Amino acid sequence: xxxxxxxxxxxxxxxxxSEAQLDFSGxxxxxxxxxxxYCVPQPDGTFRADGTVTLLTxxxxxxxxxxxxxxxxxLLTKLRERAVEPADVSIVVGTHGHSDHIGNLGLFPSATLIxxxxxxxxxxxxxxxxxxxxxxxxxxxxxVVPSPGHTAQDVSVCVRGTSVGTVLVAGDLxxxxxxxxxxxxxxVNPAVQEVSRREALRTADxxxxxxxxxxxxxxxx
Length: 221
Prior knowledge:
Metallo-beta-lactamase domain-containing protein 1; Metallo-B-lactamas; MBLAC1; 3 helices; RibonucZ/Hydroxyglut_hydro; Metallo-beta-lactamase, Chain A
């Protein structure tokens, strides 16, 4: 077995990437992890957590998850390090409605917001097919994919054409690499989430999880 690989589904294995591997160049879109999410249990039984934040740059500037409101200034700093102002972001995707993933939506009032299965521009809500289990294409290279289970309306963002192949920004569909002992306890519907996870492992080359470093998917062919 390849070092640091873990079998997760049939002939599929996964292996974590390092903190030095947070930028995935591509044409026409590149994906950059601005913040690696975390979840740390505390002695009193609570836990401290914030979600992964990912920036897609290309024909459109897309932010996937915003982290919690306590990280507002850090988010602004990370964007400006990439020469991106909030007004430059045309689409913000919240993979689900938890505060550690959508706590800074207010920084982007002019962006199209996709939060779970809801899509809005200002106070105007747009019809879409996510609730029917169909992907919502942003363009031919990026689409929003329904991936329920953690909550009833989770989505992931699929980015094609990067240097590592297809990148899936998965929110809490995957908590982190090697999360087999934890994800079911955090799921509203583990059976549905299992199906969503298997589909992600079938299609993605790299997965960016909600609370940890990206990991690659290795298929025996």
